[in-house]
Design brief:
256 residues; mainly beta; Immunoglobulin-like; 2 domains; five-stranded mixed sheet; four-stranded mixed sheet; 21 strands; binds copper (II) ion
Length: 256
Protein backbone atom coordinates (compact mmCIF):
# COMPACT_ATOMS: atom_id res chain seq x y z
CA UNK A 1 0.00 0.00 0.00
CA UNK A 2 1.32 3.36 -0.92
CA UNK A 3 -0.80 6.03 0.74
CA UNK A 4 1.75 8.75 0.05
CA UNK A 5 0.90 8.88 -3.65
CA UNK A 6 -0.81 12.19 -4.47
CA UNK A 7 -3.41 10.44 -6.60
CA UNK A 8 -4.45 8.31 -3.64
CA UNK A 9 -4.51 11.34 -1.37
CA UNK A 10 -6.85 13.08 -3.80
CA UNK A 11 -9.02 9.99 -3.90
CA UNK A 12 -9.24 9.95 -0.11
CA UNK A 13 -10.92 13.31 -0.32
CA UNK A 14 -10.81 16.65 1.39
CA UNK A 15 -11.81 15.42 4.85
CA UNK A 16 -8.88 13.07 5.02
CA UNK A 17 -6.48 15.73 3.80
CA UNK A 18 -7.78 18.18 6.37
CA UNK A 19 -7.54 15.59 9.11
CA UNK A 20 -3.92 15.03 8.24
CA UNK A 21 -3.20 18.75 8.13
CA UNK A 22 -4.86 19.44 11.46
CA UNK A 23 -3.49 16.53 13.40
CA UNK A 24 -0.21 15.45 11.90
CA UNK A 25 1.06 18.37 9.85
CA UNK A 26 4.81 18.76 9.81
CA UNK A 27 4.53 22.25 8.42
CA UNK A 28 5.33 25.12 10.81
CA UNK A 29 2.63 27.25 9.20
CA UNK A 30 -0.11 24.61 9.59
CA UNK A 31 -3.10 25.11 11.86
CA UNK A 32 -1.82 22.61 14.41
CA UNK A 33 1.49 24.43 14.71
CA UNK A 34 -0.26 27.77 15.08
CA UNK A 35 -2.34 26.45 17.94
CA UNK A 36 0.67 24.94 19.65
CA UNK A 37 2.59 28.21 19.37
CA UNK A 38 -0.15 30.28 20.96
CA UNK A 39 -1.65 28.29 23.84
CA UNK A 40 -2.80 31.44 25.64
CA UNK A 41 -4.74 32.77 22.66
CA UNK A 42 -8.40 33.46 23.31
CA UNK A 43 -10.92 31.26 21.55
CA UNK A 44 -11.81 32.60 18.13
CA UNK A 45 -15.35 33.46 19.09
CA UNK A 46 -14.95 34.09 22.81
CA UNK A 47 -16.82 37.38 22.76
CA UNK A 48 -20.58 37.84 22.88
CA UNK A 49 -20.90 41.12 20.99
CA UNK A 50 -21.60 41.53 17.30
CA UNK A 51 -21.69 44.23 14.65
CA UNK A 52 -24.03 44.12 11.69
CA UNK A 53 -25.18 46.44 8.97
CA UNK A 54 -25.08 47.00 5.25
CA UNK A 55 -22.50 48.14 2.75
CA UNK A 56 -24.29 50.62 0.53
CA UNK A 57 -23.47 52.01 -2.90
CA UNK A 58 -24.57 55.44 -4.08
CA UNK A 59 -23.79 56.29 -7.67
CA UNK A 60 -24.04 54.98 -11.17
CA UNK A 61 -23.37 51.32 -11.73
CA UNK A 62 -21.28 50.90 -14.88
CA UNK A 63 -22.58 48.51 -17.54
CA UNK A 64 -21.34 44.94 -17.38
CA UNK A 65 -18.32 44.18 -19.50
CA UNK A 66 -18.68 41.48 -22.17
CA UNK A 67 -15.91 38.90 -22.03
CA UNK A 68 -14.80 36.90 -25.04
CA UNK A 69 -13.92 33.32 -24.20
CA UNK A 70 -13.18 32.18 -27.76
CA UNK A 71 -9.46 31.80 -26.95
CA UNK A 72 -10.41 28.51 -25.28
CA UNK A 73 -13.12 26.53 -27.09
CA UNK A 74 -13.87 24.60 -23.89
CA UNK A 75 -14.60 27.83 -22.01
CA UNK A 76 -16.73 28.99 -24.92
CA UNK A 77 -18.68 25.73 -24.90
CA UNK A 78 -19.31 26.12 -21.16
CA UNK A 79 -20.53 29.70 -21.70
CA UNK A 80 -22.49 29.63 -24.99
CA UNK A 81 -23.99 33.05 -24.27
CA UNK A 82 -20.62 34.54 -23.31
CA UNK A 83 -19.47 35.81 -19.95
CA UNK A 84 -20.32 39.12 -18.33
CA UNK A 85 -18.02 40.86 -15.91
CA UNK A 86 -19.59 43.18 -13.37
CA UNK A 87 -17.47 44.17 -10.38
CA UNK A 88 -20.06 46.61 -8.91
CA UNK A 89 -22.86 44.26 -7.89
CA UNK A 90 -25.69 46.25 -6.34
CA UNK A 91 -29.09 45.04 -5.17
CA UNK A 92 -31.51 47.35 -3.37
CA UNK A 93 -28.66 49.78 -2.77
CA UNK A 94 -26.39 47.19 -1.15
CA UNK A 95 -23.02 46.16 -2.56
CA UNK A 96 -21.94 42.50 -2.80
CA UNK A 97 -18.45 40.99 -2.65
CA UNK A 98 -17.08 43.52 -0.19
CA UNK A 99 -14.67 42.34 2.49
CA UNK A 100 -15.81 43.79 5.83
CA UNK A 101 -13.46 43.37 8.76
CA UNK A 102 -12.46 44.72 12.15
CA UNK A 103 -9.30 46.75 11.70
CA UNK A 104 -8.12 47.11 15.30
CA UNK A 105 -7.96 43.61 16.75
CA UNK A 106 -5.39 42.62 19.34
CA UNK A 107 -4.49 39.14 20.54
CA UNK A 108 -3.59 35.95 18.74
CA UNK A 109 -6.25 33.87 17.06
CA UNK A 110 -5.36 30.39 15.82
CA UNK A 111 -6.39 29.51 12.29
CA UNK A 112 -9.47 27.28 12.02
CA UNK A 113 -8.92 23.65 11.01
CA UNK A 114 -11.50 23.93 8.24
CA UNK A 115 -10.34 24.72 4.72
CA UNK A 116 -11.52 27.51 2.46
CA UNK A 117 -12.19 26.52 -1.15
CA UNK A 118 -11.46 28.41 -4.34
CA UNK A 119 -13.00 26.59 -7.29
CA UNK A 120 -12.39 27.07 -10.99
CA UNK A 121 -15.74 26.40 -12.57
CA UNK A 122 -17.11 27.44 -15.95
CA UNK A 123 -13.82 29.29 -16.55
CA UNK A 124 -14.51 31.61 -13.62
CA UNK A 125 -13.43 31.58 -10.00
CA UNK A 126 -15.99 30.57 -7.39
CA UNK A 127 -16.27 32.50 -5.17
CA UNK A 128 -15.01 35.74 -6.65
CA UNK A 129 -13.82 37.00 -3.25
CA UNK A 130 -12.32 34.72 -0.61
CA UNK A 131 -11.64 35.75 2.99
CA UNK A 132 -9.65 33.55 5.32
CA UNK A 133 -7.21 33.47 8.20
CA UNK A 134 -3.44 33.34 7.97
CA UNK A 135 -2.31 29.73 8.39
CA UNK A 136 -5.69 28.39 7.25
CA UNK A 137 -5.73 25.78 4.51
CA UNK A 138 -6.84 26.95 1.08
CA UNK A 139 -8.12 24.22 -1.24
CA UNK A 140 -7.83 25.15 -4.88
CA UNK A 141 -9.77 22.90 -7.24
CA UNK A 142 -10.41 22.61 -10.93
CA UNK A 143 -13.98 21.61 -11.83
CA UNK A 144 -13.40 22.28 -15.54
CA UNK A 145 -12.21 19.94 -18.25
CA UNK A 146 -9.52 22.43 -19.29
CA UNK A 147 -6.17 23.77 -18.07
CA UNK A 148 -6.26 26.47 -15.42
CA UNK A 149 -3.43 27.89 -13.40
CA UNK A 150 -3.75 29.74 -10.12
CA UNK A 151 -1.43 32.67 -9.89
CA UNK A 152 -1.90 34.95 -6.86
CA UNK A 153 0.18 38.11 -6.83
CA UNK A 154 0.57 39.06 -3.17
CA UNK A 155 2.82 41.85 -1.94
CA UNK A 156 3.34 40.60 1.65
CA UNK A 157 2.87 36.83 1.34
CA UNK A 158 4.80 34.50 -0.98
CA UNK A 159 3.75 34.38 -4.64
CA UNK A 160 2.94 31.01 -6.20
CA UNK A 161 1.71 29.64 -9.49
CA UNK A 162 0.12 26.21 -9.76
CA UNK A 163 -1.15 24.59 -12.94
CA UNK A 164 -4.15 22.27 -12.79
CA UNK A 165 -4.50 20.71 -16.25
CA UNK A 166 -7.23 18.20 -15.45
CA UNK A 167 -10.78 18.23 -14.11
CA UNK A 168 -10.99 17.15 -10.48
CA UNK A 169 -7.49 18.25 -9.48
CA UNK A 170 -7.10 19.73 -6.01
CA UNK A 171 -4.27 21.41 -4.15
CA UNK A 172 -4.57 22.06 -0.41
CA UNK A 173 -2.08 24.09 1.61
CA UNK A 174 -1.81 26.90 4.13
CA UNK A 175 -0.42 29.20 1.43
CA UNK A 176 -0.68 32.51 3.31
CA UNK A 177 0.89 33.19 6.70
CA UNK A 178 0.49 36.97 6.91
CA UNK A 179 -2.42 39.40 6.87
CA UNK A 180 -3.00 40.94 3.44
CA UNK A 181 -6.07 42.64 1.93
CA UNK A 182 -6.59 41.90 -0.95
CA UNK A 183 -4.46 39.56 -3.02
CA UNK A 184 -5.37 39.51 -6.74
CA UNK A 185 -5.53 36.04 -8.27
CA UNK A 186 -5.39 35.40 -11.99
CA UNK A 187 -5.21 32.58 -14.50
CA UNK A 188 -2.47 33.05 -17.08
CA UNK A 189 -4.40 30.92 -19.59
CA UNK A 190 -7.68 32.86 -19.34
CA UNK A 191 -6.98 36.56 -18.76
CA UNK A 192 -10.59 37.34 -17.80
CA UNK A 193 -10.41 35.10 -14.74
CA UNK A 194 -9.90 37.12 -11.58
CA UNK A 195 -10.51 36.60 -7.91
CA UNK A 196 -9.33 38.25 -4.71
CA UNK A 197 -8.18 36.73 -1.44
CA UNK A 198 -8.21 38.63 1.86
CA UNK A 199 -6.10 37.19 4.69
CA UNK A 200 -6.49 38.11 8.37
CA UNK A 201 -4.78 37.14 11.62
CA UNK A 202 -8.17 37.05 13.39
CA UNK A 203 -11.64 35.71 12.60
CA UNK A 204 -13.54 39.01 12.57
CA UNK A 205 -14.28 39.40 8.87
CA UNK A 206 -16.97 38.55 6.35
CA UNK A 207 -17.66 38.96 2.63
CA UNK A 208 -20.98 40.58 1.77
CA UNK A 209 -23.41 38.61 -0.35
CA UNK A 210 -26.20 39.90 -2.55
CA UNK A 211 -27.72 43.03 -1.01
CA UNK A 212 -24.60 44.04 0.94
CA UNK A 213 -25.59 42.86 4.44
CA UNK A 214 -22.91 41.79 6.88
CA UNK A 215 -22.61 40.49 10.44
CA UNK A 216 -19.44 39.94 12.45
CA UNK A 217 -20.04 37.83 15.56
CA UNK A 218 -18.03 36.69 18.56
CA UNK A 219 -16.46 40.05 19.37
CA UNK A 220 -15.28 40.93 22.85
CA UNK A 221 -16.64 44.25 24.18
CA UNK A 222 -14.76 47.23 22.75
CA UNK A 223 -14.57 50.13 20.33
CA UNK A 224 -13.94 48.89 16.82
CA UNK A 225 -12.99 50.37 13.50
CA UNK A 226 -14.79 48.48 10.75
CA UNK A 227 -13.34 48.75 7.27
CA UNK A 228 -14.97 47.72 3.98
CA UNK A 229 -12.65 46.83 1.09
CA UNK A 230 -13.84 46.35 -2.49
CA UNK A 231 -11.68 45.32 -5.42
CA UNK A 232 -12.33 48.52 -7.38
CA UNK A 233 -13.53 51.17 -4.91
CA UNK A 234 -11.63 53.14 -2.29
CA UNK A 235 -12.05 51.59 1.16
CA UNK A 236 -14.57 53.08 3.58
CA UNK A 237 -14.59 52.70 7.35
CA UNK A 238 -16.48 53.64 10.48
CA UNK A 239 -16.41 53.16 14.24
CA UNK A 240 -18.76 51.29 16.51
CA UNK A 241 -18.67 50.55 20.23
CA UNK A 242 -20.22 47.37 21.60
CA UNK A 243 -20.64 45.97 25.10
CA UNK A 244 -20.74 42.27 25.95
CA UNK A 245 -23.89 40.69 24.55
CA UNK A 246 -24.70 43.78 22.50
CA UNK A 247 -25.53 43.85 18.78
CA UNK A 248 -23.98 46.98 17.30
CA UNK A 249 -25.17 48.49 14.03
CA UNK A 250 -23.10 50.19 11.36
CA UNK A 251 -23.82 51.00 7.72
CA UNK A 252 -21.00 52.10 5.42
CA UNK A 253 -21.55 53.84 2.09
CA UNK A 254 -19.47 53.96 -1.07
CA UNK A 255 -20.08 57.05 -3.19
CA UNK A 256 -18.95 57.13 -6.78
CU1 LIG B 1 -8.12 29.45 -16.44
Amino acid sequence: MSIRKPSVLFALGLVTILGACGGESQQPAGPGATQAAAPAAPAATSGTASVSGRILFEGTVPPAEKVKTSADPKCQAMNPNGLEKQTIKVKEGGLAEVVVYVKNVSGAYPAPATAVTLDQSGCTYQPHVVAMQAGQTLTIKNSDDTLHNIHPRPTVNAEFNIGQPRKGMETSKAFFDKAEVMIPVGCDVHPWMRSYIAVFTHPFFVVTGEGGSFEIKGLPAGEYEIEAVHEKLKAVSGKVTVKDGEAGKLDLTYKS
